[in-house]
Each structure stands twice: as structure tokens, then as C-alpha cells.
Amino acid sequence: MNIKTITIKNFQSYYGIQSIEFSMGLNLIIGNGGKGKSKLFNAFYWVLFGDIYITDLGWRSTDGFPHNNKFAMNRQDFLNRKALYETDVNEDVSTHVHLELEDEKGVLYEIERSVTAKRLDSENWLSPEAWNVGNSIIKVTYETSRGTQVRTDMMAEQVLRSLFPEEIRNYIWFQGESLDSLINFRDKATLKAAVKHISYYPYYEKVSAIITNAKAKIEKLERARIGDNNKTNKEINATLAKIQLYQNTVETEEKAKSNIELNITKIEMALAEDEGKMKGLANFTKLVNDYNKCKADTKDVMNKLTELDDYQRIQIPNLWILRGFSNEINICDDIINKHNEVQDTVPEKKYLDNPGRSKLEEIIKNKTCFVCGSDASEGTDAYNWVLKRIEEQEVYLKEMEDYSNNLEFSKKFERFVGSIQDYPNLLRISLDSIDKQFMESDEKMEQLQAQYRMLLKKQSTLDEQLEEIKKKHGVNPIEQVGQGDLVDNRIKASRSNLAREHRRLEASKEALANAKSELKLAEKDLERIGKKTGTTTVSETEWKNISIFLEDIFKRVQENARKDLLSKIEIRANEFYQKFTEHDNGYKGEVKINADYTIEFDGGLNTSHHDRKKMSIINAMLSLNQEALDTYYPFISDAPSSNFDIPTTHKYLLGVKDIFKQSIIITKDVDIENSNFEELTSQSKISRIYLLDSNVYCESDKNPDLHEVSTKVIQLK
């Protein structure tokens, strides 16, 4: 069987109509986080089974939204957001996934699942009240000798069940995060279940059950015939009654034993799961404690930043506004100093009153010096000197008059200047203090911001680690740590219940053994009586002996087949494991499977080796089953390499390409810029390679909403 094409319309992140073609060999689909890888895997699963995967919840039918997914998704949320956004009130929008595949007989099947939603009159187009979403409609079309056959609804589901039996689905199509639930080294029940679901061994069990049931019916017929032939023989009838009693006891005890063993298996599975959780709780506890401390530290730093910001907002207008006023203060200081210099200067004493003004005016009037008799007429040197002396006397008198007049005011002003003359120095000291205060505050702000950025980065790393644990283990570590006491109590209860069930099992085995022993004695008594009377042998007796012989033979054949199958699984798994690790250096170990279904755990290996071992075991059982039944399924896996680095993923892909006739691997762990990618593209068995990227329907500088982004498919090979 192989998948030809998948066509997706308006499903989850896929907008409009997009088709992907597949060939035999490995089909590789690459995409970074958020590019639509899991949505593509959902499209495969939805078209066939009507379910999509929801983190922490598992597979859920879209027809049951939102109730069956604990309201994690609304009724319309699996339809493409852009398609919903573009739908007007009272208009319909539809989504469908169309799959073409061909079975091993060359019959082509076309499978389509679709859903239609009607836009209602509601302001918020994202609200559940804005949409009336119908249930999915499934249609299967295929050709037979009677012509084209079209099946819908239940008949279509029946065709799909025949193509992909329910018990095998999780093994041929699985997500990397569910690998631990399929094969768990700590829980042998997982391998036992896998053998039951995906190997030919159950056919032995069915044949063995048919022989055992036939023997029981023949024995009843034999006893009934003997009773009819010996109605008057009390001894024979009493012995037959004993045989019937002990036979009923054996059947009852076998059922009880089977139920107890089933309970033990359930308790062991629950115990293994809880012990695994408890083992991981130590790591979870440290991680969650780091996460909670990081959150608390981030909140504390944010509070300090807020307090510091509030403080700075107050200080800036009240005090820090003075920063940068040093020049103005220096100017003020210069003004005060210059004033002090001026006010300390008394006008120079000038002896300009000899001769006095009246004598000088007399010389001008008489044009003759009264001392020496010199000519002082206009224009002479004596005349000019006299005029200059009169002018100097006037200026001096004016200075003395101003000095005398301002003396009182100067005293008052001087007292004021004296009171402020220390201000510049004080302000300089205050400015230095303000500068220091501002710089310290600014430095503290930078330190807190750097600390905040560092904490955000740390929190982002912790968020990624928590999300990785959610994907890998299907649990929320934060919730799990809070449930530590609850898990511990469950473990104690499971161990107590397990011990009780084992005691019940021993008692049941003892009762069964006693009943079988009594039954054999009663059958020997009947045989002894028959030898005497010759009336206890009927035609059914020979058939009973044949069925006993066949049951014994087939049980031995069945047990040998079981051991042989486990041995073949181990051998084939190691072949695949060698392919997956042939490019590794260092210790790689090997797959070891015991007869009781336990898988030996190798503590010297890392997680990626353990995961490759698990995939090797699953792939071994699938390939053996396909060879035995001549039915080949396409192998599809989403993020099988989630625990691998890029080089390890490369090695895994080189190995898996040789295992299945057709495989579709969806992964983020391939770097198309790496030289290893060229090696992948050159491989003939890697038939097609696609890259998933994003279409963005908004301006480049804008952070797009969900309805502004969709997945686009780019073919690389």
C-alpha cells in the first residue's frame, strides 16, 4: 500500500488548496517550529480517522469539540483562521482533506473528509458564537470488478478499518512524543501489547483458543453421551457429576486466574507509569524549582524597576532638573566676586580744590593767572588747563556725592550679598551630590534591566525545557511536581494492591491445581469403571483424545513460536539499529529482548540511542508482520527525531530509507544549508523532499496575527 497524494483545503494552518505528491521510498518533509509539520500529520490522521492531536490530551475527534478536549479548542478552531476571517456573515466556509492511496492489489482509493461551517451574526469572528460547524463527512471511492464503489458515513469507516486496522494505527503512524508509550524499557507490557497488535503471533493464540474451546465442547458432549448410555448406573452418574463439578471449578478458577493476571498487568502498568513519573519528579522538581525561582526573581526585579522608575519620575522635576547648571552657577559666582571687588573700592582721594572753583572761574574771566600773571585767554594752554581742572572737579564731586548717596543702600545690599555669596559653593556640592545620586540611580537601573533581560532569557530556556517535557512525556512538570505526594500515594497503593493480587493469584493457582487434580482422579475413576463395564467409551471419546493431543502439541508450538518471534524481533531490530547508528562513533550497545518480553536497559547509552532502539523494535515487528502477511503499510511519523541532534537525525534518515517501501518523515531536525543535506538529496531511495514555510499576509514590520499567517509547501526534490 502506498500514498499517492494528499490535498488540503483550509485545514488548520493550511489556507486555500495545497497538494503534496508522494512516491515510493522515503518522502522527507522539513520545517522549523510553527511551520505546519504537526498540522500536516493531523491532516493525514483526520482524513482517515477524524481525529487531531492535542498536546496533553492526545487524539480527539473534531466532531466532539469543545467538550471532548476539555475546551482546549473551540468548535471551529481546526479550520484555517484566514479562511474564517474572510467569511462574511451568513456565508459558508469549508475544509477538506483528500487522500489518494493504492493498495497492494493496485486498487486506487480516494478518501475525503470534509466539514462546513456557517458564519453567524456576531461581532467577534473568533468566538464560538460566530460559527455553526457541522460534523465531518467521510467519503471513500474505489474501483472493483463491479465498477466504481462509493461509500459514505459508517460504510466508509468500515472500508477504512479494513485498510488500516485500529490496533496497528499507533505503530505505523506515530508522533515522536508518543514513542515512550509504545515501547517502554521499564514496562514489559508495552512490548507484549506491541507483539499482540503488530505481529503474526496472535494468529497462534486464536488457533490455540479454537482448539481449547473445541476440546471443552467435545468433553461435554462425551459426558452427555456416557450419561445417556448409563442412566441406571449410579456409580457412573455419580462420577460424571464429580467430573462436571470439577470441570466447572476448573473453568471458574481459570477465569478467576485470568482476571487476576489481567488486574496484575493493569496494576504493573500503572505502577511502572507512576514509578517513571516519580523517577522523573526529581528532575522535574529541580526544573520546576528553578522555573518558580526564576519567575519570582523576575517579578522581584520588575518590582524594583517599577519602584526605581517611580523614584526617578519624582526626582527629575524636583531635583535632578538642576543637573547641567554648573556653568550658570559659575557665572553667578563670578558676578558676586566682581561685586565684592567693586564694593570694597572707595573713590580715590583727589586733591583738586587748590585752587578752588571760584579762583579758576576768576582766571577764565580775567584771562590772566592770578599767581604768575600768565596769559589765560581762550585758546591758550593755560585756558585749556583751567577748563579741564573745572571738569575734573565736577566729576570728582559727582563721584563723592554718588558714593555718599549709595553708601546706605550699599550696606544693605552688601548684607544680602554676604548672605548668598556661599550659595555657589553649596550648590556645587549639591550638584555633585545630585550627579552622584543620578549616576547611581541610572547605573542601578541598567543593572536591573540587564538582570531582567538575563532572567527573561533564562525563563525562555526553562519554558522550552518544560515544553519539551510536555511533548516527550505527555505531562505538565509543574502540575506533576504538585502531584508528587499523590503519585507517591498511588505507588504505595499499587504496590499494596499488587502484593494482594499476587497472593490471590497464588491462591487461585493452588485452587486450580487442586481442581485439575481432582478432575484427573474423577476421570481415572470413570476410566476404571469403564474397563469393568465397557460402557464409558463413546464416539466422542476418540475426538476428545485427538483434541487433547492437538492442544498439547499446539501449546508447545505456540510457545516455541513466541520465543522464535521474540528472537526474530531482536535480530531484525539489531539490523535496523545498526543502520540507524552505523555512522556513530563510540559505544552503541545492542537490542536485547528476553523471553518474558522485558527489554534490557543499557545505562551507558544516551536518550537518542534509546529512542533509536525503540524505533528499531517497532520497525522490526512491522517489517516481520508485513513479510508474513504480505501487507505493506506506509510508515508516517511526525518528529521521530525530537530527541536527536541534526547529525543523529541525518544518520537516522539514511537508515530508515532502506526499511520501508514507503515512508513519510516529518521533522525539523534537518538543516538544508548543511553539507549533509546534499547527501540526502543524492540518495535514490529518498524520493521527495519538501520544505514547509510561512506565507505572511501583513506588512513586514508588523507582528502578524494567526489569521495573517499560513503554511506554504515548497518542493526541494
**Estimated radius of gyration:** 50 Å
Portion in helices: 55-70%
**Major sheet attributes:** 7 strands, antiparallel
Strand content: 5-15%
Distance between the ends? 22 Å
| Assembly state (oligomeric) | single chain
Mean pLDDT: 82
Entry summary:
This protein is an alpha/beta fold. The protein has 18 helices and 15 strands.
Which key terms come to mind for this protein?
717 residues; alpha/beta; Rossmann fold; 2 domains; seven-stranded antiparallel sheet; six-stranded mixed sheet; 18 helices
Can you tell me about this structure?
By secondary structure, the chain is an alpha/beta fold. It folds into two domains: 2-164 and 633-715, Rossmann fold (3-Layer(aba) Sandwich), CATH 3.40.50.300; 238-533, no CATH class. It is 59% helix and 15% strand. The protein contains 18 helices and 15 strands. The strands form three sheets. Strands 1, 2, 6, 7, 8, 9 and 10 form a seven-stranded antiparallel sheet that branches. Strand 4 and strand 5 form a beta hairpin. The longest helix is centred in the middle third of the chain and has 85 residues, at 234-318. The model has no long low-confidence stretch (mean pLDDT 82). Keywords: Coiled coil. One of its GO terms (molecular function) is ATP hydrolysis activity.
